[in-house]
Design a protein that fits this description.
- This protein is mainly alpha-helical and about 80 residues long.
- The protein is about 75% helix and about 0% strand.
- α1 (about 1-15) packs antiparallel against α2 (about 20-65).
């Protein structure tokens, strides 16, 4: 929600200072891209403990699992 308010405030401040429409669109695209990357980075940092926990669980599962024995021996053809 704050990102949308930031972009709207940014747009109106550019409009009030007399920047051209093309300059405003370019500035909005750049601001949107930076805010998107910042949001994705925040989500990754927030999810990092759960990702580490999932990797640890899979590693422990594979470490303590018994190796599977083959059910039958394949016949070799001459």
């Amino acid at each position: 929600m704050l990102e949308i308010l930031f972009v709207l405030g940014f747009f109106f401040m550019l409009l009030l200072t007399g920047i051209s429409l093309l300059g405003m669109i370019a500035a909005l695209v750049v601001a949107f891209a930076l805010m998107m990357l910042g949001g994705l980075l925040a989500v990754v940092i927030k999810m990092l403990p759960w990702l580490v926990l999932a990797v640890a669980v899979v590693w422990l599962y594979r470490a303590f699992r018994q190796p599977e024995l083959p059910r039958y021996k394949g016949r070799r053809l001459p």
